[in-house]
Amino acid sequence: MLLLDITETIHLADWEIEFQPIRAQGSGGQNVNKVASAVHLRFDIHRSSLPPAYKERLLNYSDQRINQDGVIVIKAQRFRTLEMNKEDALLRLKELIQLAIKQAKPRRATKPTKGSQRRRVDEKTQRGKTKALRNKVDF
User: Which segments constitute the Prokaryotic-type class I peptide chain release factors domain (predicted)?
Assistant: First the structure.
């Protein structure tokens, strides 16, 4: 059974994602110490059905939610119900995978224009003149 669509061609099955209900932290109401409404999502990158290029990019991606063993752990406790927190965790997993596989645009070196260089130097000389006027006046 498919659980999460990463792209049109790449999908994650329900056996790849593990949910563990936990108690939410922080202040709460009557049910805060009784109901496990927060959730830990665990996703093992090595065991997943992702393409090898995706796995490599994820394992090299710098994010605190990816531990040394190659397991993504996402804690969701934003909402009051377990179902909403599961959906939130799945959405955050999808965003993390999409961010990791996104290709960064190559940087190109550029030069400042002659006009901008001239304006910068003119601004500096004007600032210097303004500061020079703050000196003590010699009678």
Answer: 23-39
